[in-house]
Amino acid sequence: MTRFILSDTPLDTANLRADLLDARVGAYASFEGWVRDHNDGRQVNGLRYEAYAALAGNEGNRILADALEQFEIIDAQCVHRVGDLVIGELAVWVGVTAAHRDPAFAACRFIIDAVKASVPIWKHERYADGSNDWLHPE
Amino acid sequence: MTRFILSDTPLDTANLRADLLDARVGAYASFEGWVRDHNDGRQVNGLRYEAYAALAGNEGNRILADALEQFEIIDAQCVHRVGDLVIGELAVWVGVTAAHRDPAFAACRFIIDAVKASVPIWKHERYADGSNDWLHPE
Amino acid sequence: MTRATVLYFASLRDAAGVDTEVVDTKAADLAALYRELQQRHGFAIAMEHLRVAVDGTFVRWQEAPRDGSEVAFIPPVSGG
Amino acid sequence: MTRATVLYFASLRDAAGVDTEVVDTKAADLAALYRELQQRHGFAIAMEHLRVAVDGTFVRWQEAPRDGSEVAFIPPVSGG
Fold it and tell me: Among A92, A94, B1, B116, which one is least packed by beta carbons within 10 Å?
């Protein structure tokens, strides 16, 4: 099952959330990354995400499968934007459902950490001073 | 400011989320409690939440003020339903915004834990076998 | 005598049969007031599992009931 | 000689000036292939900060390039 998705169009969190509705769920934890107007002290005007789609899909789905195996959760999904994004726009969404909140929070945190650490997606920021840069944190 | 609200009508998470949009936000963590179809091994048909509104407002707002003081967050809100709820319905929503995900997750967890521990709201469950009960965990 | 309004919630209200009542009491503190009302209504919840609030704020059991105040005994909560 | 398609992303693509190229190489492993292409394109990122993938799966640098495969050098990621 495809639990990790790359999207080149804006995300609708209401729809994403609705896909997880299930009568067994008591706890729904979600995380969203939004495009900030600043990064490392520089004023950001906008950004672009680029992905290696085939590998991103493999890695993302592996991470979500890991989460479903490691935590007592009911379901989990992650969608990451690619393409051009403006300030305030949703860049990544993680949603996790469980009977109880402990595993819901833990799995949600695990997924966003793992996605940020290993899914081949790159951020290209445009700054207010006219410069721009790829982010390659070490 | 009123960051904790009791609502006797269904919650719209898209609106609640939209109230927190802010160009400084990089991380949005949210938690929702949904009405489960089971509890402690019993099949639940539905439930009712009752609150001592004056004290719940005071306690809830104190918890949110604590969170804003303790964590590096931008804003936080919590809404709790009162009245009759059906299976799958949203009972409580917590939303936290921050520049970074660490404090967003931590504050979100702090808030739901504190709300569950000390805000005077009581759950009355109706079971499939026709019985019903107030929940007073010790 | 002190006259206070007492609020009951959840299972305490079910046991009392009312959600509020005006009580005239000689109780020296809120703990004694609870014991008095527990006897009258047969409340099953022991005081150590309750909290007490006056006029919308949690207070200590050692406080004396005040005339015209609103006292609430808070059973273990179950929101969320 | 092995013929492989190499994919470039982010700052590696900017440096290479192309997002994909077909290379004929005698490199014994993917590490040697990267060094070869690093020299050709002047990549600033040292190999120890990269990962390498073949046909959409992460692999070890010690693997030999395979004929007809798709090799991608993965700069430090910054999604989320």
Answer: B1
What is the ipTM metric for this complex? 0.94
Closest-CA residue of A relative to B16 is A14
Asked whether C40 and C27 are in contact (CB, 8 A), the reply is no
CB C27 within 8 A of CB C47: no
CA distance A28 to chain D (A): 20
pLDDT at residue D25, rounded to an integer = 97
Residue B79 inside a domain? The answer is: yes
Residue A57 lies inside a defined structural domain of this protein: yes
Chains C and D touch (3+ CB pairs under 8 A): no
| Pairwise CB contact (< 8 Å): A136 & D57 | no
Closest-CA distance of chain A to residue B118, Å:
17
Tokens of D12: 């590696």
- Per the structure, the count of domains in chain B is 1
Report residue D39: phi and psi, to 5°: -65, -45
d(CA B19, CA D47): 45
What pLDDT digit, counting tens, does each position of D21-61 carry?
Answer: 999 999 999 999 999 999 999 999 999 999 999 999 999 99
Each residue of C28-59: pLDDT tens digit?
Answer: 999 999 999 999 999 999 999 999 999 999 99
Output the pLDDT for position B1.
66
CATH number at residue A64: 3.90.1170.40
Residue B15 lies in a domain: no
A90 band by pLDDT with thresholds 50, 70 and 90:
very high
Give the residue from B2, B19, B16 showing the smallest Cα distance to B58. B2
Please name the amino acid found at residue A89: E
Q: Reduced to 3 states, what is the DSSP secondary structure of residue D45?
A: coil
Q: What is the pTM of this model?
A: 0.95
Give the residue on C whose Cα is nearest the Cα of B121. C79
What CATH topology corresponds to C2-74? Answer: Ubiquitin-like (UB roll) (3.10.20)
Question: What pLDDT, on the 0 to 100 scale, is given for residue A1?
Answer: 66
Q: Nearest-CA distance from A90 to chain B in Å?
A: 9
Chain A residues with CB within 8 Å of chain D CB: 33, 49-52, 54-55, 57-59, 80, 91-92, 112, 115-124, 134-138
Average pLDDT over residues A31-52: 95
Contact present, A90 and A10 (Cβ < 8 Å): yes
